[in-house]
Design a protein that fits this description.
alpha/beta; 4-stranded antiparallel beta sheet; 8 helices
């Protein structure tokens, strides 16, 4: 295990309550990776005879809705109620549009939303659990271990846990330059919205600091603005595997972001699949 400086006991968090309505436009906009990941997860779960899934940090539902469309029974959890509301709206639109896959002729998805902290969520036993899009990065190392232990307790024997996180060696190398700065504009609910983000990497703490400003204007009201300054914990493959093993998981396999081959040095994120024996 490499020598790692202890991280702070508390990580500054983003204000998802204010940012929820803009989230998909700037975090998921133009990213086909989310759909590709859903295809990979659906195939993985079908091969392993998974029927029920808990999404421990569903956000606006990118994976939960996709997996429900594929015919799985999904319980979607998130700590932030505004993000859950956005996910519910998207799920309702999917049902009304008939884009609910194998959910049945009525278009009804087998999808339940719950407000819950991933470290303490307790909604029964499941065949699989997921925690995607760097959600564990919002946790300190201590809390991440607590989450893995809780996830282990929520799974049936043979159950799978799938998590992802930015890959520290790649970030410390040349990959991080792609994350350092972002500037995007979009039209959201008739408003012009501009989002700017600057990121810095602490190699000692293995954390990314994110500073961003989101501004919007509808042409009638006063402009609005959200300023953010928060941190994300990231890991290398060895540390992530060690924490999962300590929680009781086995048969850990590592992949790249969308289920492609993982490279310790160049894959920008780690997709870890673990099994409960």
């Amino acid at each position: 295990m490499p020598n790692i400086s202890k991280s702070s006991k508390v990580l500054r968090q983003p204000d998802y309550s204010s940012y929820a309505r803009f989230y998909d436009y700037f975090e998921l906009a133009g990213q086909k990776e989310s759909k590709e990941l859903n295809v990979f997860l659906a195939e993985l779960f079908k091969i392993n005879d998974v029927k029920s899934i808990i999404d421990f940090a569903c956000g606006t539902g990118a994976q939960s809705i996709g997996l429900a469309r594929a015919g799985f029974v999904v319980t979607a959890c998130d700590l932030n109620r505004e993000m859950l509301e956005q996910a519910k709206i998207k799920a309702q639109k999917a049902e009304k549009s008939g884009k609910s896959g194998k959910a049945g002729k009525t278009g009804k998805l087998h999808l339940t939303f719950k407000a819950a902290d991933m470290r303490e969520a307790d909604y029964g036993q499941f065949d699989a659990g997921i925690c995607i899009f760097n959600a564990i990065g919002h946790l300190t190392r201590e809390d991440c271990r607590k989450f893995f232990a809780n996830a282990f307790s929520q799974l049936n024997p043979g159950g799978l846990l799938v998590v992802d996180i930015l890959n520290f060696p790649a970030m410390a190398g040349g990959v991080f330059k792609e994350y350092k700065y972002m500037s995007r504009e979009s039209i959201v609910d008739g408003m012009l919205v501009h989002h700017v983000r600057n990121c810095t990497l602490s190699r000692v703490r293995r954390q990314i600091r994110v500073r961003s400003v989101t501004r919007w204007q509808d042409g009638f009201s006063d402009p609005g603005e959200i300023s953010e300054d928060w941190q994300m914990q990231i890991y290398d493959a060895d540390e992530l595997q060690s924490m999962l093993l300590d929680a009781g998981f086995s048969e850990i396999q590592l992949f790249g972001p969308t289920g492609n081959e993982f490279s310790h040095d160049t894959s920008d994120s780690i997709l870890a699949i673990s099994q409960k024996k």
